Amino acid sequence: MAEKFDSLEEHLEKFVENIRQLGIIVSDFQPSSQTGLNQKLNFMVTGLQDIDKCRQQLHDISVPLEVFEYIDQGRNPQLYTKECLERALAKNEQVKGKIDTMKKFKSLLIQELTKVFPEDMTKYKAIRGEDPPP
């Protein structure tokens, strides 16, 4: 799996470098540099074709749109993963706290109901398969 990404990364790096060089040629264009410009344009076309070939190998990979928003904002896409994990951990702690609170509430409710309705709670516990408290 990593080889697929390595190949794509290599082609993208070459493509970016060709665009950088093309920008240098265009910014200081002289008629004598027309041949170099044409060559770089051909390299761009070839680079896009190479990237397109990689697309076929990675067709089953999906990337959340938020990752592209991070990139568009100039942020590191790895921050997206980090922030997702942090949000998941925070939500996990919140839900764990709610579960613990509900368990405590259930325990207290059963204790109080046992005081008020001892016979009914004995039947309830027998139905649930719970041993009555000593």
Automatic annotation (TrEMBL):
Q: Name one Pfam family in it.
A: Med10
Q: Which PANTHER family match?
A: MEDIATOR OF RNA POLYMERASE II TRANSCRIPTION SUBUNIT 10
Question: Where does this protein reside within or beyond the cell?
Answer: Nucleus
Q: Which family does it belong to?
A: Belongs to the Mediator complex subunit 10 family.
Gene Ontology molecular-function annotations: transcription coregulator activity
InterPro entries in the record = Mediator_Med10
**Keyword Transcription regulation found:** yes
The entry's function note states: Component of the Mediator complex, a coactivator involved in the regulated transcription of nearly all RNA polymerase II-dependent genes. Mediator functions as a bridge to convey information from gene-specific regulatory proteins to the basal RNA polymerase II transcription machinery. Mediator is recruited to promoters by direct interactions with regulatory proteins and serves as a scaffold for the assembly of a functional preinitiation complex with RNA polymerase II and the general transcription factors.
Phylogenetic classification of the source organism: Eukaryota, Metazoa, Chordata, Craniata, Vertebrata
Record protein name field: Mediator of RNA polymerase II transcription subunit 10
Quaternary structure, from the entry: Component of the Mediator complex.
GO CC terms for this protein? mediator complex
Which controlled-vocabulary keywords does the entry list?
A: Activator, Nucleus, Transcription, Transcription regulation
Q: Which GO terms describe its biological process?
A: regulation of transcription by RNA polymerase II
